[in-house]
Amino acid sequence: MSKVQLSETRKVTIRAFRFNAETDYLPYYKNYEMEVGKDELILDLMNRIKWEHDGSFSYRRSCRHGICGACAIKVNGKATLACKQNAIELLDLFDNEITLEPSSTKRAIKDMIIDKSDFWEKHAAVKPYVVADVDPRPEHESKQSIAEFNNFLDSDLCIQCGACHYSCPALEVNDAFLGPAALNAAYRFTVDTRDEAGQERLELTAEMGSGVWDCVKCFECAEACPKEINPIEKITKLHNLQFSEGVAVSNVATRHAEGFLRGMKKTGYLDEADIVTYSEGYLGMHKHLKTAMKMMKAGKIHWHSGIPFINSIPKIKNLDEVQKLIEISQTNKL
Amino acid sequence: MSEQLHYALFTGCTAKQSTPELLSSTLAVADKLGIKITILEEASCCGASHIQDFDEFLAHVLNARNICYAEKLGLTMITICNTCQLNSAMTKHALDSDPELKARVNEKLAEVGLEYKGTSEIKHFLYTLIDEYGLENVQDKVTTPLSHLNIAPFYGCHNIRPSELHEEANGHENPYNPNSLDRLIAALEGNPVNYESKNKCCGFHVELQANHTSEVLAGNALLDAMDNNADVMVTPCPLCHLKMDTYQDSVGKVMGRDVELPVLHMPQMVALALGCTEKEIGLNFHVQKAKHLYTEAS
Predict the structure, then answer these.
(1) Chain B neighbours among A 239-268 (CB < 8 Å)?
(2) What is the pLDDT of residues B21-77, one digit of tens each?
(3) Are the C-beta atoms of residues A216 and B216 closer than 8 Å to each other?
């Protein structure tokens, strides 16, 4: 919340990322001093840099209503839709020191403008539209009931600004990962009752290395979205759909998700050793031997009767309740 | 404090298995501070966000059952694992905001004689120390100041994101500029290390299925802390601890640099400053050597 009184302004130095891919070898940062008023947005600050300090300062902007998604940038690493974000709020959050950067510095073309082609390629890959044989002269509208509409959750509100996509650390490391925006779109159209490509999308998003199983569960996307969409919620729904629609094949990731129940049925706890063995399969265990030896040496894995991992886990009280609840509540199978 | 603080402790799985030092140091700290702890011995695994991927409804039923036992005691449920905190809080939020889901879950719980009411708060131990016990009261109990240590706080995702879910339980911590651990370190007279990766992901959850991603994320954070002169890293999450402590050799290979940094659990750090015993602190359970911290601290 703004701490300034009405009519009060604050004198600050705004630091901005500058780079022109055509002429600069490396990016650099420049400081701009200005008085910031209580109602000014980050977009206003960018306008003032351009209009009052340096006409070559470049950024994308269009609607100024938080709907076109053009002005997404980062402020001190925080994904920010410039036309929606009050400047004083961020100055308060970051002790009056803010740095404007493009959503992805490594994809910068000129100042705040980035090459978003990777975002659009991934978005297109999930077929973000209703796939259906449509009668060119329909007698009725193709209606959605309220219940069917509610099934989309809030996934339909995406403005393709890229805030979540360029905040995703999994994508930062793994270029092949579809990322939260594309997966949100995949969910949106997969649960649309008019659509016929659900199975195809579920298979695409089930692929190891690029699909939902590469999400690291950091919730950066949920925090980044200016439309408060919570993309990781849709990623979890896609995970569940892969099991409920029978798309999930047995692999290290699906066994890892389902395998938690093995330990829980026996002791109530996850069985840390069993989950690795079960997920990887015995042949895959060679990768973990060195780590397992170190963990054993440090007393992290227990050794009983000469056999590692056996009966080393205590049982919870009232274990029968957990067993019963799994039996009567489980809805999905691998 | 006029009344003794009393909490129901949800230990989670790792404190009962690979990180026994987390449980012993938590209990030792509570004992030193005069906080009463009742361990929820009935509580099962929270699903760690993986059962949630497999069967969301089942995950809600199992987490609601855990919360029922804290409700029976009429106590706040405290967690010592960020992921336990997240998954318990997600179930609580889902059930408290969706009466139809709550009814469906309670239908199952009724089969084992339980009912989820929504009467217990769920809070990570870190935030009970700060918000309810009070940092100045913690500071009063320090016998071994940590002034010789540069300590890198590593917050762990699931205590700070999504912020909307956690804001009541974590004192409105801002995920882009968190400061609770920094303030705790300062209260113990240690030197908090400021580094960019402190609110980033450790990669634990994709250790098996996306190993390279996992190693790079852990490596980024560990090296960032080391490059900012950290002597030790501290985290409130045992899963971050496991990733960062156990895999330093393989992380080093992926990053092409030697990685060597002791990683403490948050209660271990407090226990060091409060003068708890070596057995309670349990640095012998670490893969990356950390026992030198005893002598340095004494």
Answers:
(1) 239-240, 243, 251-254, 256-258, 260-261, 263-264, 268
(2) 999 999 999 999 999 999 999 999 999 999 999 999 999 999 999 999 999 999 999
(3) no
List the structure tokens of B251: 């992380």
Selection from B107, B79, B111, B112 nearest residue B95 by Cα: B107
β-pair type (B6-10, B76-79): parallel
pLDDT of residue A296: 84
d(CA B149, CA B166): 30
Average pLDDT, whole number, for chain A?
A: 93
pLDDT at A7 over 90: no
CATH topology of domain A9-114: Ubiquitin-like (UB roll) (3.10.20)
Whether the CB of A324 is below 8 Å from some CB of chain B: the reply is yes
Q: Give the pLDDT confidence score for residue B16 in this predicted structure.
A: 92
Strand partners, B152: B233
CA end-to-end distance (rounded Å), chain A: 48
Length in residues, chain B: 298
Please compute the mean of the pLDDT values over residues A145-160 and round it to a whole number: 94
pLDDT at A161: 98
Kindly tell me the burial class for residue B211, based on how many C-beta atoms sit within 10 Å of its own C-beta (0-12, 13-18, 19 or more): middle
**Domains of chain B from N-terminus onward:** 6-123 (1.20.1050.140), 139-297 (3.40.50.11810)
* Per-residue pLDDT at B248: 97
How, if at all, do strands A113-114 and A303-304 pair? Answer: unpaired
> How many Cβ atoms sit within 10 Å of the Cβ of residue B55?
27
Question: What does the domain layout of chain A look like in residue ranges?
Answer: 9-114, 117-132+145-244, 254-329
Spatial strand order in the sheet of B6-10:
B36-39, B6-10, B76-79, B122-124
Look at residue A5 and tell me whether its pLDDT is greater than 60: no
Confidence band (pLDDT; 50, 70, 90) for A305? very low
Contact between B23 and B37 under an 8 Å Cβ cutoff? The reply is no
Chain A contact for B263 (CB, 8 A cutoff): no
Its CATH architecture, for the domain A117-132+145-244, is Orthogonal Bundle (1.10)
Q: Which helix (H) or strand (E) holds A100?
A: strand A98-102
What distance in Å separates the CA atoms of residue A199 and residue A154, rounded to the nearest whole number? 21
For the stretch B171-230, pLDDT in tens is: 999 999 999 999 999 999 999 999 999 999 999 999 999 999 999 999 999 999 999 999
* Torsion (CA) B203, B204, B207, B209 in degrees, nearest 10: -80
Does the distance separating the beta carbons of B157 and A219 come in below 8 Å?
yes
Is the pLDDT score of B97 beyond 90?
A: yes
- From B19's Cα to the closest Cα of chain A, the distance in A is 6
How far is it, in rounded angstroms, from Cα B237 to Cα B234?
A: 9
